[in-house]
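User: Please predict the structure of the protein below. I'd like the answer in structure-token form so I can feed it into my own downstream comparison script.

Assistant: Understood. Taking the following sequence of 292 residues as input:
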Amino acid sequence: MGNNPDRGRTISTVLGRRLGGELLRMREECGLRQTHAAEALTASPAKVAKIERGQVPLRDPDVRALCHLYGQTDELVIDRLLALAKADRERRKAHGWWNQYPQLAAMAEYVALEDIATNVRTWQLAVVPGLLQTPDYARALAVGNGHWEDPDEIEPFVESRMTRQARLRGDNPLELWAVMHEAALRQLVGGRQVMRGQLGHLLDVGRQPNVKLQVLPYLAGAHPGMNSAFTIVSFAEPGALDVVHVDTTSSTLWLESNTDADRHNVLFDRVTRLSLAQRNSISLIEGILKET
């Protein structure tokens, strides 16, 4: 078989598919074929097909060559594509800590992106976001959800969730904007003692300058976020380079197009406008803590 330095890199990634999809759209809009792109890159049409499917990383000169071929002169668009290509290369090179946790297999791609993201905005209907959970709360969720029959698998899951939270600390911490429905704060996950610890933790972490917390109260009534929870992962200024993650009961769904990202950005903005301001959200959490 021989040694192939590209072996293991020919996989489809979320960021690669986002970049490849945009390049495919640009190529089709100007009426060119994969053979034309291949000539511009001094490559084969098969490689262009892999690029457009998000299966291989793309160098900056290749991004610029394709933009030139497709008549793209908007420097903002080109810079966004270059940033996307860079983020995808970083994602592929990462030998992350998450690989040692089989319990994270379903979430591996999300955690890998979270590790290189600059901003995360999340809307949660029923649970506290994973980045803000205490060990006892995460453990109680794992038991309640019944994901694993073997109790010995729960502790590595809890450990991995706590390791994720390191992104909120350090020299270049992740910017997190978490909006939760009041129901997530009142549900007695693990019982009163566990919830008291979880609510107290929210009050503590809410003081970090890189964390913004908001609560959508029951009094808001019907609202645009009732259908599902979701997370917007950003790799530049929010809105410039986003992918959307939706975790369902049966699968993990990535929404990778500009249209999907724009739609969920608007939805997140609408939910935040209906939510309490951060100081009032903190006051509500304090009140619920006293009642628990």
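That's the full token string. The chain has a mean pLDDT of 88.
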